[in-house]
Each structure stands twice: as structure tokens, then as C-alpha cells.
User: What shape does this take?
Amino acid sequence: MTKSNHIITRKALESDLEGVYQLIHELAVYEKQPSEPTNTFEDFTQDFKDAYFEVLIAISEEEIVGIALFHDAYSSWKGRMLYLDDFVIKENQRGNGIGKLLFDAYLVEGQKRKVKQFRWHVLNWNAPAIKFYEKYNCSFDDEWITCKLMDNNLK
Amino acid sequence: MTKSNHIITRKALESDLEGVYQLIHELAVYEKQPSEPTNTFEDFTQDFKDAYFEVLIAISEEEIVGIALFHDAYSSWKGRMLYLDDFVIKENQRGNGIGKLLFDAYLVEGQKRKVKQFRWHVLNWNAPAIKFYEKYNCSFDDEWITCKLMDNNLK
Assistant: This one.
């Protein structure tokens, strides 16, 4: 648990999931894809209990103001990784250093597990996010196309 | 285990890992990034034992001629996923339907687990691979940039 200017970061518990789920939907609206999240709250809760993902949260005045949702992943070329699937700071709380606090907590989590690489994706038009990530020593690779196949599109 | 024209597909065992590791390096050469794989065989073996990833293999005349390396993953928007990290058919065995056999086995694996989405990446210049994937009902999304941060580049 890390505290900074009344912001606390810690691992999410089951009782935090409602606030986490709300922020996930807030990001989808920001990313102009409000109808993309189809994951129900019931499945989300069960999958959390089954440890398919973990969440770090930032709390200000007892409210969840940021989330970093991640899971173990693997690269045959590099070895063990952490994959950051979702990273959201509540819109009215941006610019207060909460993103850095939360992203650093994600990196610490990976260091504890001795992962070789951290990986995530960013929308190519999301300039503020790209600017944020540029502060880290990461590479930006637009040569790889993401392929997605939904279960209900299987032939 | 599925058999077709003397090709067998099945889950890899620890004793198969050497052949799997060789094919991973073969793909890196094909993708013009021969020095990118830094994962040692020792770590690769240990991570397999620790279940960080699984592998489906295709076997022809007792030789491993194709691999599909994948792991559980998660999308906050969609739910449970399988992520295909590496998919290789031995160069002299391409065009014989082994790719379809192996990819279909990967899809069956996800259906067993009731995942909502299958995800993977393809290099934007790899026309034969893109053509192969186009036969499936998947989307190709080049709006997301892949960000990678290696542990030894942490500040």
C-alpha cells in the first residue's frame, strides 16, 4: 500500500469491483467505443475470484479514482510478462499524478514477480496516453496488427 | 489428439519442448528478428512446468512440424480470452493444411474453456499469415500500438 497526497494505491478486493467496473465503462466512453464492453458484472466478479486478472486501485477520499487491470502473460521470445489490459484514471482526477502512482505500482508488481517484460496497448490517436508512456523507457510498435475473434463468430 | 493425413495434433509435453523451442527460433529468423528471442531454454522449460503457457503441437513422422503457443488472458471489456503468442509451421511443411489443423485445435481449446474471445497479433507485412487468418471471422485492428517495456529498461 502506497500513500501520496491522500491518494492510496493497493490491490483491489472483491468489495472494490463495482467501482472498478464503473471506471472500465468510463474509459470505453472516452475511447469512443461505449457499446464495446459486453462483459457482465457477474462474470467479471466470478473471473476475479477465479484469478484470471488482478487490479491495482488508487483511492482518494474513499472513492476509486484509478485502476490498473493486469494479468500474467507470456512471450516465447522474452519469457514471463505482465500484461496491462486496462488503465483508467477518473476524468476529473487527471493531471494529479495518480496515473504515475498507479503505473509505478504496476511496475513494482512485475518486479516482485521477476517478469522480463511489461506489455500494454495504446490507441494511436490517444496523444495524452502516448505522452504519458513516453516518460518510460518503452518501445512503441505499430507493425503488429491485433487480431480478434469472438466466440460467437466461430464458423 | 486429432489425426489427419499422418499429421497428429496434441498438447505438448515437457519432452517436446526442445522441438518447440527450435521452431520458435525458426520463426524469429523468418520475421527478420533473429536476435529478439532472449528467453533461455532453461527458463522456457521452468515456465512451462509452472503453467505460464501451453503449447499445441503438430507431428509428422515423429517430428514436430508446427506449434501454437498460448495462454489464458483477459479483456475487461469482453471477459476470458485465449492469447496466441506464437504460431509456427516448419517452412518446408507449409501449404499442407497443418496450419489450419493446429489453429482449429487452438480454437477448440478455447471453446472447451468457454472463452469469449481469441486474440493474437500478426506483422502487417506478413501477407501469407494475414491471408490465412482472413478465412476466420476475425477483425484486424491496426489502431492499437503495442507498448513494450523490458525489465532492464526500468528507470
About this structure: The first strand of chain A starts at residue 2 and ends at 4. Residues 17 and 45 of chain A are 7 Å apart (CA to CA).
